[in-house]
Amino acid sequence: MKDTVFIEGLKVEAVIGVYDWEKEIKQILFFDLEMEHDNRVPAVNDDLSKTLDYEAISNFITAFCTNNVFELIETLAERLCAELMQVFEINAMSMALRKPGAVPTASAVGVKIYRQK
Q1: Residue 16 in contact with residue 71, Cβ under 8 Å?
Q2: What is the mean pLDDT, run by run of 10 residues, along the chain of 117 residues?
Q3: CB count, 10 Å around CB of 14?
Q4: C-alpha distances in angstroms, 99 versus 9, 38, 78, 108?
């Protein structure tokens, strides 16, 4: 099994959706990420600069969702995942993106993706 760094239940507001009314409001999205990373490297010297900094990644996700507008959560997930892998030098990751309230009879709907270089 590979080491991971994870972020669970990251709550972000975003303009997302295909309907005209959705393009006028911000909606809540939740992100769960698992990013492969050899955690032995930062552990040797207790060195933050050698980690996948989950605070920096969380802030990046929030900014990305604030600065971009998509109709589909599939598009958001794909583009965000590609950006995260490039900016933070992540070799492989999984992402679950949930959009609560999109289907009134479901607690949430969403997508799960896994990508690797």
Answers
A1: yes
A2: 92 93 93 95 92 96 97 97 97 97 92 96
A3: 22
A4: 12, 31, 15, 5
Vertex 10 angle, CA 8 and 15, to 5° = 145
Question: Domain extents for the chain?
Answer: 4-116
Radius of gyration of the chain measured on its C-alpha atoms: 15
**CA atoms of 18 and 23, how far apart (whole Å):** 7
Q: Which residue in 2, 23, 50, 99 is the catalytic one?
A: 99
Fold of 4-116: GTP Cyclohydrolase I, domain 2 (3.30.1130)
99 has catalytic annotation: yes
Q: Which residues pair with 7 in a beta bridge?
A: 33
Single-letter amino acid, residue 65? C
Bridge partners for 80 per DSSP? none
Q: In angstroms, rounded to a whole number, what is the distance separating the alpha carbons of residues 27 and 12?
A: 8
